[in-house]
Amino acid sequence: MQSVNVGNLVPNPAKGGVTGFGKRPAEGPVFVSAPGTDKGKSGVEGDAIGDRAAHGGDDQAVYAFAREDLDDWERALHRELVNGSFGENFTTVGLDPNEAFIGERWQVGDRLLLQVTAPRIPCKTFAARMGVRRWARRFTEAGRPGAYLRVLEPGPVCAGDPVRIAHRPAHGVTISMALFALTLKPETLTDLVAAWDDLPAETQRNVKERLGCTVR
């Protein structure tokens, strides 16, 4: 873990109101716990959420993005991207969130246990903050969205804590696969059925509605 990032509320350039998108590394340990089933609250202590209807809650308690991918975007965009620039709570190194399996469990430090839930799908706020033409499409096409995680066992975390994969499901459905199925390649939606029991309830509803049939 390279850094743990939290954000304060600032004006939202996309649609008015406020956003906690821009995050910066925290100093010292930060406690992470399940925020509850209702949207609107982060699982990371001290981290603010502006769009409480769309973000937060148990299935989006933590957002992880790889430092290696930030480095790639730095080179592509010719700009510096500090940790937290993409709104991530955890900036990881040596661990690829995009190739994580839905339902995979991460042990972070000694106590914190997380479970991978879903890919990040870019929103208007993200696009507005980046100021890059067709940013949402470009980010999605790259297929490296980072991963949302839920909290199974709470605990403190700080920069430098090791992250290890404690369990991998056998289904093989990755975060990148889920991103494409839910966005640019709807013809692959049926691939998500293999990970059905590990999908968030919101994703299950989305898949059922779009397939137009009863799944399972």
Task: Briefly characterize the structure.
With 216 residues, the chain is an alpha+beta fold.
Tell me what the CATH architecture is.
Answer: Beta Barrel
- Low-confidence sequence ranges: none
**What overall geometry do the principal axes of the alpha carbons give?**
globular
What is the CATH level 1 assignment? Answer: Mainly Beta
Strand order of the largest sheet: 4-1-7-6-10-9-8-12
Number of helices: 5
Radius of gyration: 16 Å
Helical residue percent band: 10-25%
Going by CATH, the homologous superfamily would be PK beta-barrel domain-like
Mean pLDDT comes to 93
N- to C-terminal distance:
37 Å
Give the biggest beta sheet. 8 strands, mixed
H-E string: EEEEEEHEEEHHEEEHH
Describe this structure as you would to a colleague.
- With about 220 residues, this protein is α+β, with helices and mostly antiparallel strands.
- The protein has a single domain (about 5-185), classed as M1 Pyruvate Kinase, Domain 3.
- The chain is about 20% helix and about 25% strand.
- The protein is built from 5 helices and 12 strands.
- The protein has helices at about 65-75, 125-130, 135-140, 175-180, 200-210; strands at about 5, 10, 20, 25, 30, 60-65, 90, 105-110, 110-120, 145-155, 155, 165.
- Strands 4-1-7-6-10-9-8-12 form an 8-stranded mixed β-sheet.
- Strand 8 (about 105-110) and strand 9 form a beta hairpin.
- The model has no long low-confidence stretch (mean pLDDT about 95).
